[in-house]
Amino acid sequence: MEELMQRLVHAAAMEGAVAQAVLDDGLRLLVYPLDEGQLAVLGWPAGSGHQVHGETLLRRRGADMARYGHWLPALFNDGGWYVVHRLGVDGNPASLDAATLAAAAELLQ
Question: How far apart (Å, rounded) are the C-alpha atoms in residues 108 and 97?
Answer without folding.
Answer: 17
